[in-house]
Structures are given as C-alpha cells and as structure tokens.
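Students often ask why inverse folding is considered easier than folding. One informal answer: many sequences map to the same fold, so there is more than one right answer. In these notes we will look at a single instance of the problem. The structure comes first.
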C-alpha cells in the first residue's frame, strides 16, 4: 500500500494538543510509542464522567452508581469486541500493560511454575516483559530462555524452535517491538508452543493500538495492552485471558470488590474478571477508553495499519538518504509497525532529540526500556520516531530537517586559537 488511507487533516482537527507549538514552531509529535495524544471525544468523556455520573461502581444502590457501573461494564464488552475475545469475562482492567503482565506472572506463574520449568522470552522484550519473569523465576526456580534476533531485528526462527521444548511452560513475547518495529509471527509461535504444551502471553502494548488484533485468530492465552497508547487515558490497562485460566488462577491483589465472602481468617473470591480487580478502579479512565475504542473503530484498524505503513515506508526512505544515519529493524516496511529507531553517526541520541525538540519535533531518545536489546544492538541508546493516525509526511520532512540541523551543529569544525 503506497497511498495514505486516512483523512489526516480531519483527524488532526479532533486533537486539541496538535494546535499548540513546541519552542515557537508547530508541534510535530512523533513519540506515539511512548503515549498517544487524545481526541476531544476522549477528553469530553472524562469531563462527562466527573460532571454527570461520578460514583463508585458495583457498590451503590443509587442511580449514579448504577450508571457508572453500566458504563464501566459496557467498556469491558467493547474491549472484548475490539480484540475478538469470546466475552467480557475474559477482560480484566489493570493500570497498564506492565501491571497486566505482573498479574499473570504472580497469579499464574507462582501456581504453575517450579524448578526445571522454562519461560521463553526474546532479547527484544520491553523491561515490562522481562523483569516480572525474573522475579518469578527467582521465586519458583524456573529458568529463563531468550530467543535471539537476526541482523534486521527479526526473531531467529531456529531459536524459537530450539528453545520452545518439553520444559517450556510459557512463551511471553511482544507482538510488535517498541524499538525495532518488528512484527513477530505470534500465531506461528502460539501453534508451536501449544504443540509442545506451553501457554502463550502476548505483549500487545504496541500492536493493539496499531494493527487489527483478534485474540482468537492469534490463539494466545494471555494478551496485555494499555489504553494510553491508543488514544485513551493513562492509568487503564487490559489483560485478556482465556476464561478457564482466569478461573484457575489465584487473585493477584487482595481487598474490596475481588471477594465473595470474608471472615477474619479467610476469604473466598468473586467471579472472574472481578476477582482480579481489587479496590476502586480508574472508573473515569475506563469509561473514557470507550470513546477511544469507538474513535479507532470508526477509522478502521485496517486503515490505521495502512497509514502507519505508509509513514514507516516514507520515513525509511527519507532516513536512508541521510548520510551517517543508521536505522534499526527490518528493511521491509511491511514487516514492521510505525516505529523507526535510528542513530546519527558521532552524535548522541539525546543530542539528536534535543535539537529536534528545538525544532518542535518530539521524539524519544534513550534505551526505550529495552536495555538488553540495546546491548544486543551494541549501542547505548537510539533516537526513535513513532507515528500514529494524525501524523503526516510533512512532519517526516520536519524530522529530516531537524536531523540535518543536528549534524550541522555537532559536526561543525572545531576552531582552535593559533
Ligand atoms: N513502551 C515506549 O516508549 P506501560 O508503560 O505499562 O503502559 O507499557 C509498557 C510496555 C510494554 N511493552 C511494550 C512493547 C511497550 O512498548 C511498553 C511501553 C513505551 O516504548 C514506554 S517505556
């Protein structure tokens, strides 16, 4: 697909923040893998909650509480529909992807892992899909194995086949790398893992916002993502899990809402998914997430993907024409999402980021919470531009201009006094 598929000018008008400037220039927001901006309908939905039906959920017997509960539970159904889950009971609301993965590591891992068992991860994982497994491996005696990548940042299939074996209990893998942009063959990995008796957790923090994702097509057992990367509010995460797994798992956090009956010395648990939602959740955030899902559904996830692909292709083309720029990840834009990590020869990525910021261009620079991957790429850090539905090719030109400016600034000849 070479043409743009979204009416980007119309979309941009829905995002109030895009009207502001960055250092006196039009804001060019290319840090969407960190968090996306929010359309007016989402901001309005937050205000609507607090101004018209603010109440705690599942507890009250008054009209406001009933309305808040209904809207919260409607969003659960909408999330289930968005990812093709069989029903709302498979959807647990958390704070973010990180908490969703920690929930599985604790509630499933502690019960099901022991010495000699193996958890297969990859070297491209975000810290959120590495550190929780390190905790659990230490607590249970399980062993961590890591699939390596090739020179273009794709998983080594030989490693996948070699490492997923009889001892593997879980494969936990990202569907789209937040650095390389690589889209991993999750369905094939799930088929192999299931043949060998292991479960599959998908870190979908970057994929659900950018690709059509159907958990039944992927045949995954767990899938985690965050609302804030897909036009929704911060503080709302999702864990999808197969119902029978949720039912067999012990709770993660204890407190109000997750119980059926409590005595001084013991308690029994609520039904799923509420068994995993202890305490008052982010009601406003969940209700406003509904508006974000509606917005994306109206655009169409196929079109969102096509737009990302269009920008990724254009970005790769433009960056490859700048001397001294190294781009990481697959060369084929079809094999990646709208994330482009790069370095400029002899200039620290933080300096690149600072110069770009001066041009009004917001990117991320650093290790992107992927320190092992940085080690594997043999870099300390990278710069990273990441796109979403409101970005344009003109903004890519601003990115290129900023990189050229950084090169001029940092490569200027050093004058010595004679
Ligand atoms: N990556 C980035 O700039 P949270 O913070 O829990 O919403 O998402 C964590 C997470 C997990 N997996 C992947 C693949 C991710 O990209 C992220 C978040 C951001 O790349 C912030 S570090």
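Output (designed amino acids):
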């Amino acid at each position: 697909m070479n043409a743009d598929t979204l009416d980007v000018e119309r979309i941009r008008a829905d995002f109030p923040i895009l009207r502001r400037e960055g250092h006196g220039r039009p804001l060019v927001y290319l840090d969407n893998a960190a968090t996306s901006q929010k359309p007016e309908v989402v901001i309005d939905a937050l205000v609507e909650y607090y101004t018209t039906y603010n109440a705690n959920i599942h507890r009250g017997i008054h009209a406001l509480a009933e309305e808040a509960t209904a809207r919260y539970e409607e969003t659960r159904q909408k999330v289930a529909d968005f990812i093709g889950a069989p029903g709302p009971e498979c959807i647990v609301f958390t704070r973010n992807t990180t908490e969703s993965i920690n929930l599985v590591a604790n509630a499933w891992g502690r019960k099901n892992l022991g010495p000699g068992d193996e958890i297969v991860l990859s070297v491209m994982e975000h810290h959120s899909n590495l550190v929780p497994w390190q905790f659990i491996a230490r607590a249970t005696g399980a062993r961590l194995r890591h699939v390596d990548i090739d020179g273009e940042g794709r998983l080594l299939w030989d490693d996948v086949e070699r490492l997923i074996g009889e001892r593997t209990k879980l494969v936990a893998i990202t569907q789209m790398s937040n650095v390389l942009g690589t889209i991993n063959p999750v369905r094939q990995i799930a088929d192999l893992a299931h043949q060998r008796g292991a479960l599959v957790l998908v870190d979908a923090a970057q994929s659900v916002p950018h690709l059509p994702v159907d958990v039944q097509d992927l045949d995954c057992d767990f899938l985690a993502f965050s609302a804030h990367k897909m036009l929704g509010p911060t503080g709302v995460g999702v864990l999808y899990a197969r119902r029978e797994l949720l039912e067999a798992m012990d709770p993660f956090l204890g407190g109000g809402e997750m119980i059926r009956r409590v005595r001084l010395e013991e308690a029994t648990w609520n039904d799923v998914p509420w068994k995993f939602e202890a305490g008052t959740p982010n009601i406003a955030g969940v209700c406003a997430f509904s508006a974000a899902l509606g917005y994306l559904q109206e655009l169409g996830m196929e079109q969102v993907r096509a737009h990302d692909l269009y920008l990724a292709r254009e970005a790769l083309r433009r960056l490859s024409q700048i001397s001294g720029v190294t781009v990481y990840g697959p060369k084929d834009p079809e094999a990646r999402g709208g994330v482009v990590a790069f370095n400029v020869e002899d200039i620290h990525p933080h300096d690149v980021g600072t110069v770009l910021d001066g041009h009004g261009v917001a990117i991320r620079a650093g290790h992107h919470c992927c320190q092992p991957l940085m080690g594997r790429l043999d870099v300390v850090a990278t710069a990273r531009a990441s796109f979403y539905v409101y970005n344009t090719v003109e903004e890519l030109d601003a990115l290129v201009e900023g990189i050229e400016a950084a090169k001029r600034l940092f490569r200027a000849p050093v004058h010595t006094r004679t």
